[in-house]
Amino acid sequence: MPRGRPRKRADKKDKKDMNNGANLGFEAQLWAAADKLRGNMEPSDYKHVALGLIFLKYISDAFEAKRAALLKEELADAEDPEEYVAENVFWVPKEARWSHLQANAKQPTIGTLIDEAMQALETKNDSLKGVLPKDYARPALNKIMLGELIDLVSGIGMGEEADRSRDILGRVYEYFLSGFAGAEGKRGGEFYTPQSVVRLLVEMLEPYKGRVYDPCCGSGGMFVQSERFVEEHGGRRGDIAVYGQESNYTTWRLAKMNLAVRGIDADIRWNNEGSFHKDELPDLRADHVLANPPFNISDWGGDRLRDDLRWKFGLPPVGNANYAWLQHIYHHLTPTGTAGVVLANGSMSSGQSGEGDIRRAMVEGDVVDCMVALPGQLFYATQIPACLWFLTRNKNPGASSSSDAAGQESAWRDRRGEVLFIDARKLGHLVDRTRREFADEDIAKIVETYHAWRGEPGAGAYADEPGFCKAATLEEIRNHNHVLTPGRYVGAAVAEVDDVPFEERFTALKKTLAAQFAEAEELSATIQTKLEEVDAHG
User: Fold this and answer.
1) Helices 162-184 and 26-38, interaxial angle, to 10°?
2) Please, which pLDDT band fits residue 75 given cuts at 50, 70 and 90?
3) Interior CA angle at 350 toward 303 and 181, to 5°?
4) Could you tell me which residue, 135 or 158, shows the higher pLDDT?
5) DSSP state of 293
6) What are φ and ψ of residue 124, in 5° steps?
7) Cα 427 to chain center, whole Å?
8) Which of 82, 22, 96 is nearest to 53 (CA)?
9) Burial class (CB in 10 A: 0-12, 13-18, 19+), 75
10) What is the pLDDT of residues 214-225, one digit of tens each?
11) Pick the CATH number of 12-184 from 3.40.50.300, 1.20.1260.30, 1.10.8.50, 3.90.226.10
12) What is the CATH number of domain 188-490?
């Protein structure tokens, strides 16, 4: 598989206007139309209504495309469910096919028909059991709105070839997830990590192949972006195996639908106890872990896990789960595995309840590879400043085995005794009054810096950049009491030097200051005159 510097491959089809929404503005137009239909309905309720229909349209389109192909084959049975399962296509009974719902969109019974369609799908497909929304018939749901929403969704991908239509539906589903996260604000952020943050994590870790794991997977965005990364860099879907766990049942359902719409076969587990107390994949060792755990959770039940084997670097405090997440994630890495984790900024410097001791043990154990300080306002759920931790079990790739996971890194340099610090707080741009995003060039700057420092072939030579990045030794980190805040290490940016001699600049500054003093005296005299006039007329 091609290696070297990451690149975002532009899909030429996405760069030109195409009918029925292949152009880049279509998702936004569709979102605006769907949001208008929502009326006074809460986004948290409408989310499942809209996403459920998009999902239904997707699997119905995939089924119909496979059915059409089977009808052309003389020996194939287009009504045999096994023909579809073999191609990773869901079997869709007649009452669940989109054409049936579209034909009855204006009937007052449409809500009941959708519920019956969802139930039929779950009955015929074991992997969908308990996943699909089935409350479209409830009296509070406006059936006229429902019919109009079906008409709107019916137009997605119309006239496109089957594969292209399904890709568009996947993009729309992903865009709607983002839209609902924004509309729900803090609650929405619990299930969705902004795409630019996910892209940054994925492109830094480069999950070309192997096992990818997320212990708090939300709606599955890390997995979607990982699969996309593999495909954009010459690999095949299936080069990575996806594993995850989620404790919120509603969010788990969103993840299952999101991955199905993207055609990703994944092992996503749910239980309401969570990854700490009921690890569904205790024996899993992943080549890559990507995670955005909830920040600073205090009620994680740490008092019941005092003797857990996962706490290799120290006992995490009962009142904050940050260092429990880091150690749980490290525990699940292979001997050559790497992880990228989003955490609150406080995790880089806190010394409370033994957190400083755990951080020291992790640094001295040489498992911290890179720290990235992020700009504010990146997340829907919180304004708490955040950072990225990159962990690794092996900074000396030359000592790796010849396995696939190790082999792809064998050309990297020996990084033992070093940690890369990146201060990205000045990057990104505001997309609205409350939220910021990384542009492509921001992501490229961070990613290429990390890959150059790791010594990847084709990534170029690494150099410290004052104000942005610094490769620090363990001794330097010890001098800072094992605090990992990048700002402590990168220093200040070098001021731009102009070619004007100091004498000329000093003379110009004196003239400017004299003019400002004169203006201030004139303004003061005017104010005094006005005050005297007021006093005279008083």
Assistant:
1) 50
2) confident
3) 80
4) 135
5) P
6) -90, -10
7) 17
8) 96
9) exposed
10) 999 999 999 999
11) 1.20.1260.30
12) 3.40.50.150
